[in-house]
Amino acid sequence: MTTTLTAPRQQIQAGSDRSLSNRTSVGQTVRNTFTMAYRGLLKIRRTPEQLVDVTVQPILFTLMFTYIFGGAIAGDVVSYLPTIIPGILVQTVITTSVVTGVQLREDMDKGVFDRFRSLPIARIAPLSGALLADTVRYGIATTLTFAMGYAMGYRPEGGLGSVVLAGLLVIVCSWAVSWIFAFFGVIARTASSVQGISMIILFPLTFLSNAFVQPDTMPGWLQGFVNVNPVSHLVTAVRELTNNGVLGADAVISLVGAAVIVAVFAPLTVRAYMRKA
Amino acid sequence: MTHEWAVEAHGLVRTFGDNRAVDGVDLSIRTGSVYGVLGPNGAGKTTTISMLATLLRPDAGEARVFGHDVVREAQVVRQLIGVTGQYASVDETLSATENLVIFSRLLGLGRAEARRKAAELLETFGLTEAATRPLKNFSGGMRRRLDLAASLIAQPPLIFLDEPTTGLDPRTRAQMWDTIRELVATGSTVVLTTQYLDEADQLADRIAVIDRGRVVAEGTADELKDAVGNQSLQLGLVAAADLGSALDIVTTFGVPATTSPEARRITVPVTGPDEVTDLLVRLREARIAVDSISMDKPSLDEVFLTLTGHGVAADGEDDTAGTAAAGDVACPTTSTREEALR
């Protein structure tokens, strides 16, 4: 192992001869984000065990919930599928977005983030790239949930196009929600505390919704919450798409909600990330 | 036109809670030079570098890199610097090539260009064979080299090396030194922090000695060494009672001696054997019995004793706790030496 530097002895360009800018352009921000997303994908490929949650959970939950509740709620398993598959889909994918925050926390504790901070790149890129790469995970979870449903006899009335559209809607909304957990990831001290905080928020949100049962079977006060819960709107939007092929008001509400979350949490997260430096 | 100063810092302050990690640091680093920042753990070296490298915002004071303010024009400064941290800041789960390609892409190189640059740097740093292996299996020296390679992608005119050789074996350390020398040959300005006097001596044109967040001395290696003497003489006395009179004699030579905690040993910076002979003769005349003598190169510890009047803090972040316990006492003449240096 020899380390003689047979380097090009050419002189480096002096600082004052370089063209320099104190601002990052939108184009550069997008390019940096995609490069960081590429890094995220490489990491997923190197550590495939990270994908356990998005592979096992959709299969396990779909099987469990459908066979447990199917007979009681809808009379038989197959007629429960149009209700439960969209519900499970939303629950699984949104739960997966917690992992984004946890992994971001772990990642930030490593020295490589110091280098990202010292590079002349868009400040948001290390975060937005990581979040973008994770849409691959949501895609896997979405595909597996639909595939499980299909295997159990689910035949969406809306057709394949609507199913794809529904899947994209869920992925986009989960990506938006992942900014919330990314924020926790940045401000939290440890990865396990991110997991803890996130689960406390996530469990009521996903279960106190129309994901598994019709809200009219619930007590009035609970119905009030369930009906305003954004998760309910997303579940309804997915049901309308997959079962009727309709892109309804709930889809619009979900997308607007997603946009609001990003508008609030993306700047908060970036600022917290910069301050943490 | 090139800027005369690569770094100009005035009164940099950074506090963490009650701890003033950096407490008014001034630095002027000439373009094209190698500048050593020497100090023990917790002295504020890394914090200073972090502020200069835009990783930390100063609480007070200001700093410029090639004339650009590190706070207001942070993004410009980032285009002019390369930073190699104390701990390798590369991606553990990825291979060496993947790391360099990603950094190159982030710096705006095209896909093919990034691959070529990565291959070129791996070749330069002797990492080609290990290019596709995950970093988990890399030795400490290989990681540092990769880390340095990553800092050089954009060929920055100013490179910060934060303790580049801490924890490396002597051979790898010597290789790192060669690499740093080559860097300077290409016209880069290098700022390196170190805990080792000999490292600063080997590489740096000028050295700032930093302690408890302050620059306590600044100058060329020779100037610093003059302050502590080229060599130091350790005298073991037979009787502790003779210590006072022995110190008196040493002081007449005009050098700042230090006594050890067990108080039977005196450490005296000396310029050469002649001075030792004179000193021993004087001790004999005064009938002070000497038990043992030995000669040493001045250690960082002695530089510190001489320049700061207290020893190197115990290993750890918090140096205020350690120094009080160090127990070494320096002669009053210390301060005059220190002033002469500034």
From TrEMBL, chain A:
Residues 49-276 form the ABC transmembrane type-2 domain. It holds the Pfam family ABC2_membrane. It is found in: Cell membrane; Membrane. Its main location: membrane. The chain crosses the membrane at residues 51-74, 80-104, 124-151, 163-187, 194-213, 251-274. It is a multi-pass membrane protein. Signal peptide: none annotated. Residues 1-24 are annotated as: Disordered. Keywords: Antibiotic resistance, Cell membrane, Membrane, Transmembrane, Transmembrane helix, Transport. Belongs to the ABC-2 integral membrane protein family. This is Transport permease protein. It comes from Oerskovia rustica.
From TrEMBL, chain B:
Pfam families: ABC_tran, DrrA1-3_C. This is ATP-binding cassette domain-containing protein. Keywords: Antibiotic resistance, ATP-binding, Cell membrane, Membrane, Nucleotide-binding, Translocase, Transport. One of its GO terms (molecular function) is ATP binding. Its main location: membrane. It comes from Oerskovia rustica. Gene3D superfamilies: P-loop containing nucleotide triphosphate hydrolases. Residues 321-330 have a biased composition (Low complexity).
